[in-house]
Amino acid sequence: MRTETVEHPLAAALLTTLRDARTDNPSFRTALRDLTGILVYEALRDAPLHRFEVRTPVANTEGARLAAPPLLVPVLRAGLGMVEAAAELIPDARVGFVGIARDESTHQPVPYLESLPADLSDMPVFVLDPMLATGGSMRHTLELLAARGATDITAICVVAAPEGVAALADSGLPVRLITATIDQGLNADAYIVPGLGDAGDRQFGPR
Ligand code: URA
Q: Can you tell me which residues bind 5-phospho-alpha-D-ribose 1-diphosphate (predicted)?
């Protein structure tokens, strides 16, 4: 599996805002939105282009647009805070949804929503989930996508744990990972250390 950790001073500063326990919900949402923009930008670095002629006020020249805009799939609820930034950068993108809660005692994913196009065989997919912890939710999402024929999947995460990265690599599913950091590991509650806490609570308040 290809894994890219995005190294950029602005990404480092935004990640610090997200990590800081004093950051309030609105500031957290803003920093998550801005950092998502950087991660999506990197995820599209090698995206194929469709080239066509465009007329400027002065002359004709070559223009370009994405040949295949990805399907954006935020994993609810924490991925909600990433979808607006991604959709603004890729206005032609369609959006699907996967909802997965986590059982706080077993740490297992509990799926509750799936709203995806039936055929994904010709469509790149960007899965948006800020936290890759055990990898359970991401793996479930990848399996849903692969069952619909997806072969070109990018997982865009803000913080990844080595355990989650290994789970994706071991899954054999067609995925690459773009993240802002790979942290130390998981604690006994399956939270990423040092991480940033519960990414859903930090955006929207505790349930
Ligand atoms: N989900 C979160 O929101 N935070 C973690 O640290 C792990 C899973």
A: 77, 102, 129-137, 198
